[in-house]
Write a structure and sequence with these properties.
The protein has 354 residues and is an alpha/beta fold. The protein has a domain of 244 residues: NAD(P)-binding Rossmann-like Domain (Rossmann fold), CATH 3.40.50. The protein has 13 helices and twelve strands. Helix 2 packs across helix 4, helix 4 runs parallel beside helix 5 and helix 8 packs across helix 11. The longest helix has 20 residues. It is globular and about 60 Å long. The N and C termini lie far apart (42 Å). Bound molecules: nicotinamide-adenine-dinucleotide and thymidine-5'-diphospho-beta-D-xylose (TDX). The site of thymidine-5'-diphospho-beta-D-xylose has 16 residues, from helix 6 and strand 8.
């Protein structure tokens, strides 16, 4: 059993990292310090943790995971005992358009963090990864922790490479690590380039709903707050050197998920589901689009007693409600005002996201 006290969270202004930071500061009284190291790229939004901005336990540092001197200094200054590593370029479509930054951040950035950890063998390092490293399934079967790696997109390949490097550092240098490979997350504060928020926001603005290919690709959906809890279970109770798959046992085709979203937006806004459905457009498929992901999450259930709290219908209803009730957040994301906030507070040092 590990008892993290002073934690460094990378990418804690992104979608999942911020859910984890909120979870720590809300629910884990034993945690004394949370240092959030985030480069504040286009995907980041400090508003995601605004409710804790003045919490004495919380520090936000704008910086690059690749800056070894900075990471080493933060570890020293805050007596960090645990790093939870979320920071990444995370969007598959962007990786198809421009793979290099994915290698730079996800692969080289992770190795640089590992180099800092290598000099501090007492530290525990948790690496957050994705089910996409396993490639694509046919109609049957599930990804287990021993499924062969077969990444298909530049994003998935960069995450696969980072997983291998974490494991290799643990094996070669005896580092204390854990890893998790999770399915698709949904929930509040997700940047609206990903399927769920993109569709909700487009419906609210009566914009087209772009469905890639035939819409029959399958994803397994997990609420982001359940992911945060799963990571805490692994960080505190997971076996050293081991990987845990995390999923929601909620497989849906993209079309089925979109229908759920349409029905929910229609119900909550009192508009016609048929009218929203008419916004659907079948568009060109994503190149190399993986057909199906599905997770066998038996291990984390059996060994760590973790099961998700949210069922998909309830989680989607709450997520739609959040986007309806948080027009200010959406407005800032849409208008770019939050970028001005970053520039005013930190200066525009995010050259790589330009
Ligand atoms: P996100 O794109 O919302 O956030 C990524 C964060 O990392 C941003 O705040 C960004 O500013 C930061 N970042 C990027 N490059 C950085 C750098 N060089 N130094 C410091 N910070 C940097 O991503 P997300 O959806 O929250 O994903 C978080 C992690 O979870 C990623 O590692 C991703 O691969 C993994 N994951 C995501 C999903 C999903 O469904 N979104 C599922 C499984 C695993
Ligand atoms: O406009 C769209 N239309 C569409 O049909 C978008 C953005 C997506 N899609 C499809 C592609 C996928 O089959 O919806 C599915 C989900 O797409 P994304 O939200 O882009 O997620 P995905 O590609 O599955 O990857 C996500 O889950 C695994 C995250 O972005 C990754 O970071 C995570 O590792």
């Amino acid at each position: 059993m590990r008892a993290p006290k002073n934690m460094l969270v990378t990418g804690g202004c992104g979608f999942i990292g911020s859910a984890f930071v909120r979870f720590l500061l809300r629910a884990q009284g034993s945690v004394a310090r949370v240092v959030n190291l985030d480069l504040l790229t286009y995907a980041a939004n400090p508003d995601n943790v605004a409710e804790y901005a003045t919490d004495p336990r919380y520090v936000l540092v704008q910086g690059d995971i690749g800056d070894q001197a900075l990471v080493a200094r933060l570890c020293e200054e805050h007596a960090i005992d645990t790093i939870v590593h979320f920071a990444a370029e995370s969007h598959v479509d962007r990786s198809i358009l421009g793979p290099l930054v994915f290698v730079e951040t996800n692969v080289v950035g992770t190795v640089k963090l590992l180099e800092v950890v290598r000099a501090r063998p007492g530290l525990h390092f948790h690496h957050v990864s994705t089910d996409e490293v396993y490639g694509s399934l046919g109609p049957e079967g599930l990804f287990t922790e021993t499924t062969r790696y077969q990444p298909n997109s530049p994003y998935a390949a960069s995450k696969a490479a980072s997983d291998h490097l974490v494991r290799a550092y643990a094996h070669t240098y005896g580092l204390s690590v854990t890893l998790s490979n999770c399915s698709n997350n949904y929930g509040p504060y997700q940047f609206p380039e990903k399927l769920v928020p993109l569709m909700i926001l487009n419906m609210l603005e009566q914009k087209p709903l772009p469905v890639y290919g035939d819409g029959l690709n399958v994803r397994d959906w997990l609420h982001v707050d359940d992911h945060a809890e799963a990571i805490w279970a692994i960080v505190t109770r997971g076996a050293r050197g081991e990987t845990y798959n995390v999923g929601g046992r909620s497989e849906r085709t993209n079309l089925d998920l979109l229908r759920m979203l349409i029905d929910e937006v229609a119900r909550q806004t009192g508009t016609s589901a048929d009218g929203l459905g008419a916004l659907m457009r079948f568009v060109a498929d994503r190149p190399g689009h993986d057909r199906r992901y599905a997770i066998d999450c038996d291990r984390i259930e059996r060994e760590l007693g973790f099961t998700p709290r949210h069922d998909l219908a309830g989680g989607i209803a709450a997520t739609v409600r959040w986007y309806l009730e948080n027009g200010g957040w959406i407005e800032r994301v849409r208008s770019g005002a939050y970028r001005q906030w970053i520039e005013a507070n930190y200066g525009d040092r995010d050259a790589r996201a330009a």
